[in-house]
Design a protein that fits this description.
With 144 residues, this protein is of the alpha+beta class. It has one domain: Nucleoside Triphosphate Pyrophosphohydrolase (Alpha-Beta Complex), CATH 3.90.79.10. Helix content is 22%, strand content 38%. It is built from 3 helices and 8 strands. The chain has helices spanning 43-55, 106-111, 119-130, and strands spanning 3-12, 15-21, 30-31, 34-36, 59-70, 77-86, 98-105, 135-136. Strands 1, 2, 3, 4, 5, 6, 7 and 8 form an 8-stranded mixed sheet that branches. The chain is globular.
Length: 144
């Protein structure tokens, strides 16, 4: 089944938010707060919803920091990762979905590559934010 993944890079005090997955196929792996785009929602709505579901945090999407694609023989995988600004600091999550939510320094994230769900997606998005390679949100066009 084709997958469009949306999520966000959240930064606070030079730390980046990661969530620890509870799903069996990736249990214990750290990831950006992200998930699937559902029918009848925009990528903006989905990104904010997924960040909220996985961390409890409300955000404002501020830019596009990564568009990714994984080449698969019999499926489709595309990801759109936004930079996001925090609107609250009230972290809470469903322990059936997420094991933990923590803020990490960049150096800590670099040292935990084996524990990341998708090193290239996570570090690529964070590096783009760090290097200010973030496109304005207005480049995303919503069609009727």
């Amino acid at each position: 089944m084709p997958a469009v993944i949306v999520g966000g890079v959240l930064e606070k005090d030079n730390r980046y938010l990661l969530v620890q997955e509870a799903k069996e196929k990736c249990r214990g792996k750290w990831n950006l707060p992200a998930g699937h785009l559902d029918p009848n929602e925009t990528i903006f709505e989905a990104a904010k919803r997924e960040i909220k579901e996985e961390s409890g945090l409300d955000v404002e999407l501020s830019g596009v920091c990564q568009i990714g694609n994984r080449k698969l023989e019999d499926d489709i995988f595309v990801s759109v990762i936004f930079s996001a600004k925090l609107l609250n600091n009230d972290i809470h999550y469903d322990p059936d979905e997420i094991l933990d939510v923590k803020w990490f320094t960049y150096e800590e994230i670099l040292s935990m590559k084996e524990s990341l769900r998708n090193e290239h997606l996570i570090l690529g998005a964070i590096n783009n934010v760090r290097d200010n390679l973030v496109a304005p949100i207005s480049i995303v066009e919503m069609y009727d």
